[in-house]
Amino acid sequence: MTDDARNQMEILAGALPFLKRYDDQIIVVKYGGHAMGEEAAAARFGRDMALLEQMGVNPVVVHGGGPQINAMLKRLNVQSTFVNGLRVTDAAVVDVVEMVLSGTVNKQVADCITRAGAISVGISGKDGGLIRARKLTRTYRDPDSNIEKVLDLGFVGEPEHVDPQVLELLIAADIVPVVAPVGVGADGQTYNINADTAAGAIAGALNASRLLMLTDVPGVLDAEKKLIPEMTVAEARAGIAAGWISGGMIPKIETCIYAIEQGVKGAVIVDGRVPHAVLIELFTDGGAGTLIRP
Ligand SMILES: Nc1ncnc2c1ncn2[C@@H]1O[C@H](COP(=O)(O)OP(=O)(O)O)[C@@H](O)[C@H]1O
Ligand SMILES: CC(=O)N[C@@H](CCC(=O)OP(=O)(O)O)C(=O)O
């Protein structure tokens, strides 16, 4: 037997306790638009999801697509801005968001997993009554008048109710579900939901054992830009208040906190650019990225 073969078998044997831990468990993976990157990375992600399924773990993918939406808005000459990491979404923008997320991106992600040998089906939060949404209302304190005001982000939604039945049916049939973060209101209005928020709500409704947030940074970085391997909910909240956690990292951290409060056992922010980041996180002692804990 060669050294390579022996190493391979050692790695496989080392993964055994972790395989037992995650056997038949649901792992929700948020696959960010920035993490999708080039074709080779997407193919690798597809293979990792197919491998998890083969190992008896049940991955559920919730994807983003912020950069992909930006590119399409630019092509169509439609303007949009962000406030606290959320896209201000008017009627024209929501049409493009739905087209890109539920269309191109959703099908691409499911296809990567299917081509890697699993069966994957892409749906949006509008399918099977998965995500009923309501308009997101946020308040902020106006610095000039010091008065609390309502922030209107247009058709940005938040999950009001998640019915995981359609996902449970797919999981029971050994199909890997891929979800686009688009929801529908009681009145039929389509809402643009931040993908992190959607992933957290789905992880909570499915009682997932892990929520993994794949992005394009090594994890949460401190004020000196050093990776924080582990942080408490209180420390994360302090980082947002102090401002060294900002932009797109805010909905990510808030989602991790929400998921933990819903009973998800661990929420981790992982660098999706690192090859096999999900497998390293799940099947090694050291893990990867930043673990948020109660
Ligand atoms: N403390 C922090 N640690 C790491 N990233 C941060 C932090 N504060 C803000 N960010 C920003 O958050 C971004 C990740 O969020 P986002 O761009 O929305 O990712 P995704 O598209 O993967 O959801 C990083 O690229 C970084 O610019
Ligand atoms: C309300 C809101 O901001 N929605 C996001 C949905 C996509 C997303 O979250 O994509 P990433 O995970 O790649 O950032 C948006 O319009 O960009």
TrEMBL record:
<comment type="similarity">
    <text>Belongs to the acetylglutamate kinase family. ArgB subfamily.</text>
</comment>
<feature type="site" description="Transition state stabilizer">
    <location>
        <position position="252"/>
    </location>
</feature>
<dbReference type="Pfam" id="PF00696">
    <property type="entry name" value="AA_kinase"/>
</dbReference>
<dbReference type="InterPro" id="IPR041727">
    <property type="entry name" value="NAGK-C"/>
</dbReference>
<feature type="binding site">
    <location>
        <position position="192"/>
    </location>
    <ligand>
        <name>substrate</name>
    </ligand>
</feature>
<feature type="domain" description="Aspartate/glutamate/uridylate kinase">
    <location>
        <begin position="26"/>
        <end position="271"/>
    </location>
</feature>
<dbReference type="GO" id="GO:0005737">
    <property type="term" value="C:cytoplasm"/>
</dbReference>
<keyword id="KW-0547">Nucleotide-binding</keyword>
<feature type="binding site">
    <location>
        <begin position="65"/>
        <end position="66"/>
    </location>
    <ligand>
        <name>substrate</name>
    </ligand>
</feature>
<comment type="pathway">
    <text>Amino-acid biosynthesis; L-arginine biosynthesis; N(2)-acetyl-L-ornithine from L-glutamate: step 2/4.</text>
</comment>
<feature type="site" description="Transition state stabilizer">
    <location>
        <position position="30"/>
    </location>
</feature>
<dbReference type="GO" id="GO:0042450">
    <property type="term" value="P:L-arginine biosynthetic process via ornithine"/>
</dbReference>
<dbReference type="InterPro" id="IPR036393">
    <property type="entry name" value="AceGlu_kinase-like_sf"/>
</dbReference>
<keyword id="KW-0963">Cytoplasm</keyword>
<keyword id="KW-0067">ATP-binding</keyword>
<keyword id="KW-0808">Transferase</keyword>
<dbReference type="GO" id="GO:0005524">
    <property type="term" value="F:ATP binding"/>
</dbReference>
<keyword id="KW-0418">Kinase</keyword>
<dbReference type="InterPro" id="IPR001048">
    <property type="entry name" value="Asp/Glu/Uridylate_kinase"/>
</dbReference>
<keyword id="KW-0055">Arginine biosynthesis</keyword>
<protein>
    <recommendedName>
        <fullName>Acetylglutamate kinase</fullName>
        <ecNumber>2.7.2.8</ecNumber>
    </recommendedName>
</protein>
<comment type="function">
    <text>Catalyzes the ATP-dependent phosphorylation of N-acetyl-L-glutamate.</text>
</comment>
<dbReference type="InterPro" id="IPR037528">
    <property type="entry name" value="ArgB"/>
</dbReference>
<feature type="binding site">
    <location>
        <position position="87"/>
    </location>
    <ligand>
        <name>substrate</name>
    </ligand>
</feature>
<dbReference type="InterPro" id="IPR004662">
    <property type="entry name" value="AcgluKinase_fam"/>
</dbReference>
<dbReference type="GO" id="GO:0003991">
    <property type="term" value="F:acetylglutamate kinase activity"/>
</dbReference>
<dbReference type="InterPro" id="IPR001057">
    <property type="entry name" value="Glu/AcGlu_kinase"/>
</dbReference>
<keyword id="KW-0028">Amino-acid biosynthesis</keyword>
